[in-house]
Design a protein that fits this description.
mainly beta; 5-stranded mixed β-sheet; 4-stranded antiparallel β-sheet; about 5% helix
Length: about 375
Amino acid sequence: MDNEKRLVLLGWDRFIKRDKIESFLISDPSSFHFSFSTGTVVSEGKPQVFGFEEEKFNTPCSCSILSQSELFVSNVIYIPPVSMFLNSNKDIFWTLSSNKLTHLHFKTEHKVKQIGVDQNHWYLLCENGTLWRCSKENIKSLLLNKTQSNCFSINYSDSTYFQRFLVTSNNNELNSLSINIVQFDCHHSSVICKTNTDSIFIYHPIPTTENANNVNEIEMQEVDELGGLDIKKITIGVWHATVLTKNGDIYHWGWLQALGMWPSTPTLIEELDIENDIAIDISSGAEHTIALLNNNRVFGWGRNIFGQLGDVIIKEDNNENNEKQSIFIVHPHQKAPFISPHIIWQLSTKTNFNHMKSIVGVYCGAWNSFLVLSKE
């Protein structure tokens, strides 16, 4: 079929470690979301969940969703046992996978434009540029204790459930304007966002001192070093953040220097200039990042203990001084813990995918990576 798309998995799932690339056919999708080893895809308004069960990579299955027409889905996030749906009217619904009759309808003055989730929170970005988060446990508790099948509404004014992220620029002239958040990413309670003033803000809690669950507002810090760049996309992991500019450059930095993988301030990835490639998309997992290039190749770096950056083997070779050195080479059996920026996957070398014409998307779970291939 002409619109055939295939999902390729690199790395680890919840139950087993794999020594080969897994892939399977998916219907033509309108949106993707991957978290940990669970993926969700929306096609023709119907969500599908890609899960791991009985130590096998399952074929897509429909997740729990009510049949009402107002639940025609544009995006969905599934973290067992709760699903979060964003419908075509930009309303939010939560539902328990174990009870199709129980769901929460989230009503607010402003529609929701982007949703996100990490280990502890749901995130909602509204069209008025405000970003909120609520505890997953609070939503789960509401669903479990709800006995009626009709929708139950909650709103932002209830500080029991919602906290707002605040962005205040270091530029006093910008503060006189209305600063709104237009894009965000989250991972393990860390959050990065882009504003309508092209500023980048970040929130990274310190585990020993953070008590943000007891406050109604969370202050974010501006990343001054990125001022003046035309940012296309932002991503964040547990210990690092990455931004992609509209001209294809990638900047990255981190805040746990003991790992030795990231610079302390935003730094250009120069290896892309050497390869003469242009990045068009990025995605980050817990401790790794991948980038889709304009020539059907995938660039990656970070921790690779589960093969999320492609399986590798260490080979010894002589350098120009005739000294032994170690080189990482793509290999189907052994894995290395850390990978410096380099090409990890390219469509032209994969003979088992030679009927696919392009890579159309890259997505990261915490410890795995997903590539979307297309025949078109």
